[in-house]
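The data are quoted verbatim here:
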Amino acid sequence: MSSCDGKSMRRAEKGMIKIGDFSRLARVSVKTLRHYGELGLLRPAWIDRFTSYRYYTLDQLGRLNRILALKDLGFSLQQILELLSDDLSVVELRGMLRMKCAEVEQEVQAQQARLALVTARLQQIEREGRMPDYEVILKAVPPQRVIGIRATVTGLGDVQDLYKELQSYLQTRNVPFDPAFPGMAIYYDVEYRDRGVDVEVAAPIPGSVPATGRMVVHGLPAVEIMACAIHHGSYERLTEAYEALIGWAEANAYRVTGPSRELYLQGPEAGVDSAEYVTEVQFPLSKEPVSSFAARTKERSAMEPKIMTKAEFTVVGMRYHGKNENNEIAQVWQEFIPRMGEIKHRSEHGYSYGVCRDLTEDGQFEYMAGVAVDKVADVPEGMADWTVPAQKYAVFTCTLPTLAAAYEHAFRTWLPQSDYQRAEGPDFELYDESFDAEKEDSELFIYVPIE
């Protein structure tokens, strides 16, 4: 027997297993074991320098199983090498596992979003019996520096006249047309309008272009989620692309969060027929959960306030001070309604107000359930008078079940996205003569002071 064979037998007697046998025992391929050895993840216990045979021990099965378990968790082999390091602290190990948790959660959310898209597409095809006319994609749009003209036009046809004016101005400044940076129209109205359209026509400018009283240079903000659809054909049929985008957003639980855009990729300036125009319609979207107010509001237009000014008025009624933690305001109304008839000099019969003021940092506020009066005189016992100053308001329509959600929508969603700020002064609820507290769908109005 050669010395080599003797060493091999002694190794085997000590629990050494050849790589092939270890592979069958662990159900891991020989190629994988060799790769793990090269990386330093699982080195052979001994390599015969004469035959290059690789030997492992049964004790190494535990380390191999740990490698396979970590691999199933989604860690890369390099990460597993770090996790198995002897000098890795518990804090570092915990941090790596938490990062992996966050990564897996993101992957799950991405797959769920993809599943929702596939489901929506399937439902659309089953409903319409054909492939959709427009493919909607989501992309991030970077910030852009543009020069534009913003105006309120009498009709959509005037938008192209504005665009021609912008093009002529740029031509006089020797700014060439670049297909990679197409001109656009930006529609600032929340709802579709065919008259009185608040629109801006704009073009990205790579260099310095002087502004005028009519031409304004400014920055368009970045949009993280922009839904885009390509329209082929005349501008008169662009509403089809808009309908497709809105339908897609609703089907996939998105909501529009800003002005829509039209990018003119190929138009009259290219010398082509209108049938060959190419326009990209864009809508900025948000995947944030829709408030209960939005979910229970049938018409989108009802979620948008009317802007109006109300003159100063005085209210006489019953007061409350606190946080309304136990629905005390409802109790105030129950006590006040039977006593309304005691108030003299009422100015608006059938109307009542819930006025809120002096909100403090700890959440306490003053509230009055009352009615408007022409003059303050003969105020009933237990009641007081408040004067509400003349103010501009955003007026939202809601119902009693959606009252709290309507306030949340006004302050947390609408105000931050609008061009207004909350003004000093009380906000209030207005209940007109048609309001019926016994009916859940009976409408009331909340007035939020703005400037």
Observations:
- The domain at 3-83 is CATH 1.10.1660.10 (Multidrug-efflux Transporter Regulator; Chain: A; Domain 2).
- Residues 90-128 form the longest helix (39 residues).
- The chain has four domains: 3-83, 89-130, 137-286, 300-449.
- The radius of gyration is 35 Å.
